[in-house]
Amino acid sequence: MFGIGQIEYLRGTRFLQGPLADKIEGQEAIDFLSGLFPIMRGAEIVQHIVEGEYVASLFVLHTPNGSTHVFDKFRIVNGMLKEINPYYDPAVLSEAVASMAANNNE
């Protein structure tokens, strides 16, 4: 799993609308994903599918509040990540973010 220091390459990436965010780009995408890193406890890759400039990954994401399946579709052009399109049930992530916020306010 990569960390906050490794996501600078996202600066030119478009993060397409997902369950917890509208369409965002560049620094907004970096800030959004950086906010999720503290709740990530690991992931297990289930499958990758590659077709042309698209890569799709199915994985199980682990958080302190449980695990959830995630399906991300990526578009890669000339070796650069251009788009991320996530699909997941936001319940587990929303609960983990809320728990983290509550712990930070104590």
> What oligomeric assembly is this protein in?
single chain
User: How many alpha or pi helices?
Assistant: 2
Number of strands: 6
Q: Helix and strand succession?
A: EEHEEEEH
Low-confidence stretches: none
At the fold tier of CATH, the topology name is Nuclear Transport Factor 2, Chain: A
Radius of gyration, in Å, reads 14 Å
Described by strand count, sense and barrel closure, the largest sheet is: 6 strands, mixed
Please estimate the helix content.
Answer: 10-25%
Measured distance between first and last alpha carbons: 28 Å
**What percent strand?**
35-45%
Provide a short characterization of the protein structure.
With 106 residues, this protein is α+β, with helices and mostly antiparallel strands.
Keywords, separated by commas or semicolons:
106 residues, alpha+beta, Nuclear Transport Factor 2, Chain: A, 6-stranded mixed sheet, 2 helices, 42% strand
Describe the structure.
The protein is an alpha+beta fold. The chain has one domain: Nuclear Transport Factor 2, Chain: A (Roll). It has helices spanning 26-36, 91-104, and strands at residues 14-15, 24-25, 42-51, 54-63, 66-77, 80-88. The protein has a six-stranded mixed sheet. The mean pLDDT is 79.
